[in-house]
């Protein structure tokens, strides 16, 4: 479990993995993310793709002060000594705009190998590399996109109301996806293929994003970790100084600590 001062709610981690923030998308939960970032410190921050949603910005320009604050916070951590590693995803594959915004502050890699404090070698990539392998029928993809867009919009509205009422974030879209059989099967196939890919490439595990489904488990002896996202689930992955991986889910509990999801030690094979 990531170490931290439980009284203050501040967590200290060796590594923080974030993905699918989708800055520039109007339904990105940047207020929750900025609150989360204010309560965590990490020696290294790995951005696992789709940090800026260039595809959404191309369709409709949207940018708020909260979106800018996310970038400012990440850059401030870099100036304070944290290592920033950026792995582009399918929504931000073009780095021209990103490079201009961040002024070359990030290390950029298409794929990256993370070695945990316990010596495990984890392949880190966004996950869109598997789109050509884990497929859905075109009609189902179109239907899924339509339903997903509507669900995300409704979830955003519901959670804005809940926020004003002082209630915690509710991952409505995530629950809907898992309740639909076809969607649940696609997620399972993606996870299994990602783990298989890491295993055949000789890694102890894989860290990815892309499908907006946070998870942390062993698949046939290979570690599978998905950071989740900051549109639907508001989750992140951390590594402690001892090499243990933990999924963190926003928001804070009343006593000031973060909800913690699955815990799994990433031991070397």
Explain what the structure shows:
This protein has a single domain (3-265), classed as Purple Acid Phosphatase, chain A, domain 2, CATH 3.60.21.10. The radius of gyration is 17 Å and the shape is globular. A hairpin with a 2-residue loop joins strand 9 and strand 10 (222-226). It contains 7 helices and 13 strands. By secondary structure, the protein is an alpha/beta fold. Strands 1, 2, 3, 4, 5, 11, 12 and 13 form an 8-stranded mixed sheet that branches. Helix 1 (30-38) packs parallel to helix 3 (65-79) and helix 5 runs antiparallel to helix 6.
Search tags:
269 residues, alpha/beta, Purple Acid Phosphatase, chain A, domain 2, eight-stranded mixed beta sheet, 7 helices, globular
Report a brief summary of the structure.
The protein is α/β, with parallel strands linked by helices.
Question: What is the CATH third-level topology name?
Answer: Purple Acid Phosphatase, chain A, domain 2
What share of residues are in beta strands? Answer: 25-35%
| CATH superfamily annotation | Metallo-dependent phosphatases
Shape label: globular
Whole-number count of domains: 1
End-to-end Cα distance: 20 Å
Helicity range of the residues?
25-40%
**Mean of the pLDDT scores?**
83
Topology, element by element:
Layout: E1 3-5, E2 10-18, H1 30-38, E3 40-47, H2 54-59, H3 65-79, E4 83-86, H4 96-102, E5 107-108, E6 112-115, E7 121-124, H5 138-164, H6 172-179, H7 181-200, E8 205-208, E9 215-219, E10 222-226, E11 235-239, E12 244-252, E13 258-265
Parallel strand pairs: 2-3, 3-4, 4-5, 7-8, 8-10
Antiparallel strand pairs: 1-2, 2-11, 6-7, 9-10, 11-12, 12-13
Helix pairs in contact: 1-3, 5-6
């Amino acid at each position: 479990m990531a170490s931290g001062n439980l009284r203050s709610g501040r967590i200290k981690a060796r590594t923080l993995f974030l993905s699918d923030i989708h800055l520039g998308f109007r339904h990105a939960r940047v207020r929750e993310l900025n609150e989360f970032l204010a309560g965590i410190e990490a020696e290294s921050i790995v951005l696992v793709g789709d940090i800026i949603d260039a595809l959404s910005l191309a369709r409709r320009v949207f940018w708020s002060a909260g979106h800018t604050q996310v970038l400012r916070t990440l850059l401030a951590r870099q100036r304070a000594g944290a290592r920033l590693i950026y792995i582009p995803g399918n929504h931000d594959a073009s780095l021209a705009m990103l490079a201009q915004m961040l002024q070359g502050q990030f290390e950029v890699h298409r794929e990256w190998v993370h070695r945990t404090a316990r010596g495990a070698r984890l392949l880190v990539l966004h996950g869109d590399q598997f789109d050509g392998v884990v497929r859905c029928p075109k009609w189902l993809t179109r239907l899924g996109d339509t339903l997903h867009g509507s669900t995300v919009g409704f979830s955003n509205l519901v959670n804005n109301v809940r926020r004003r009422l002082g209630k915690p974030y509710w991952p409505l879209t995530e629950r809907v996806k898992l309740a639909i059989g076809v969607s649940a099967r696609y997620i399972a196939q993606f996870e299994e293929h990602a783990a298989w890919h890491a295993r055949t490439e000789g890694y102890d595990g894989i860290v990815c994003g892309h499908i907006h489904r946070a998870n942390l488990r062993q698949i046939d002896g290979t570690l599978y970790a998905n950071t989740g996202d900051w549109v639907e689930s508001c989750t992140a992955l951390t590594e402690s100084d001892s090499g243990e991986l933990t999924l963190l889910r926003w928001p804070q509990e009343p006593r000031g600590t973060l909800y913690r999801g699955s815990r799994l030690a990433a031991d070397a094979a």
